[in-house]
Task: structure prediction
Amino acid sequence: MFGVALKMLFRDRAKYAMLVCGLAFCSLLMTQQTSVFCGLMMWTTATIRNIGAPVWVMDAKVEQVNEVIPMRRIEVERVRSVPGVQWAVPLYLGIEQARLGDGSFQNIQLTGLDTGTLVGRPMKITAGRIEDLRLPDAVIIDQVGVEKFRSRGITLEVGTTFEINDKAARVVAICQSSRSFLGQPYVFTTYDRAMEYAKPQRKQLSFVLAEPQPGVSPEELVSRINLLRGVRAHTADALFWDTIWWYIRNTGIPISFGTVVILGVIVGIAIAGQTFYLFIYDNLRYLAALKAMGARMTTLTAMVLLQAFSVGFIGYGLGVGLTAWFGNAVLAKGQPPFFMPWQVPVFVAVVIVFICSFSAVIGLIKVARLEPAVVFK
Amino acid sequence: MSAAPVETAVRVNGVVKSYGRGETRTLALKGASLEARFGELLMIVGPSGCGKTTLLSVICGTLDVDEGAIEVFGHDLAGMSTGAITKFRGENVGFIFQQFNLIPTLTAVENASVPLLLRGEPTRRAEARAAAVLGHMGLGGRERSYPRELSGGQQQRVAISRALVHEPRLIICDEPTASLDAATGQRTMELLKESALRPDRCVIVVTHDSRIFHFADRIAEMEDGRVVGVHLPKDFHHV
Ligand SMILES: Nc1ncnc2c1ncn2[C@@H]1O[C@H](COP(=O)(O)OP(=O)(O)O)[C@@H](O)[C@H]1O
Ligand SMILES: [Mg+2]
Result:
């Protein structure tokens, strides 16, 4: 009878199309919106990935990675004195102004790496040499910056010079990096040179990066560093989630995306639920005939469930597939806020299963109440 | 008259059946009794609203009775669970409805194979069997047609095929000619009588179409929820 159930569904072209389109649209909306949300959240944590240190130490009042409360340089030494620290180095992070050859300005994310070790240096260099960062005025700029400048008609290459806060900077290498939330290009230089570029301040240290000695876990090191007064340590992972939760709590991003997702669920339930109800309603006299001809309720239930979940499966596949395809297409062109971890399709699948179950139950209530005697009417 | 063995297939004894409760309660059957024999085509006739359809429904177990007993092939329906009755119906009863009730999204052969599929037979075998029955009904070549592509008479022949495909022992027909024109109705009844009637089978036809009365072996006359008489067609002069 499963063949009969599927024929009844697929050959009812109009309702079948409506059901699949409704569920596909709903899946697409939810997948796309959650992926964009995840993409934005990834943007907010770009610095953590671009630097890539296991333990981050910051002013105790700092809540997330994009917020900088400068500390005294001495904090590096204090962290180094904690038992179990393999190394600890300073990191400077600041938004500075770059002036381009044509006189226009561009905000950049200036990143000052420990001059001796260059800990936190970019991993993927696409042009030039990382070692040249120790040459005078040397900086490394990321691909995001190259694109930004190119869109203004300026070609940035190894050897190009520009100014950061009126001081000369010379590109010695170009790197790949994760895009930041506001899209400022990452410009890497040494910590000492970053101090020269940055506006003079009493305290200038943004973060201390550290690594535990072999045998000490990052979590263990974090709890040891947290015994120091005035600073707080996080593993990279904990800082990642703190940052994301900070944006969820303190911005309208989750509300606006959540609203669209809920809208998707409602649209899905409304279209799919209603169309499926109509589909069952139209077939009621035939289902009653089947009941009269000896179809048991379990058979009819299985048929209705098969119908509901078939359209659910196809609609889901279309919706998620289209989103993934669209996502890959735009990701190939740059770094849009689009990130689809496996949890997104799973979440959408759960919602679709819910919608299909809801629709099937509504249909099944009708079928269960059906007196087989109505066939004689 | 056919020389069918006189053996009872269906026995209805003093059945009372009401619909609804309280103010809106309607007594549809008020102590109806009836016997249908193997090898006969029994017609149940009577004015609209006298309880014919209700009587059919209780005979095939799609409705419970309030009082009285129904026995089909020696099984007392009152003593059977809903599930058992459903299974019993699937195996022993073939249905022909006034509105045909063919599933519009299934072809003739798919519709006719449904009773076999409900029994769990594989699709290929069920459809081969259904195609054979359709051929016997003069529908060879129309197996792949959808109901909407067929005339009323052809649709009813698909319905007869569906009712017979699993070789049930009881065929139940409610107003089988009411949706057909006179000539088609006559031909449908001829076909039904010729193909459905067998010594080991009982065909019950509810109708108020006097033009088909002569197809009956016996005619049970109903009035106001009761069977008021059983006649031979030659003796039955409907007013
Ligand atoms: N489902 C129902 N609910 C309430 N009353 C019904 C229902 N079905 C039939 N009746 C009533 O029961 C009586 C007998 O109906 P029915 O068996 O359909 O008669 P017939 O088939 O002879 O026209 C009628 O008065 C009808 O109105
Ligand atoms: Mg009737």
About this structure: Chain B has six helices and ten strands. Residues 1-6 of chain B have pLDDT under 50 and may be disordered. The radius of gyration of chain B is 18 Å. Chain B has one domain: 8-235.
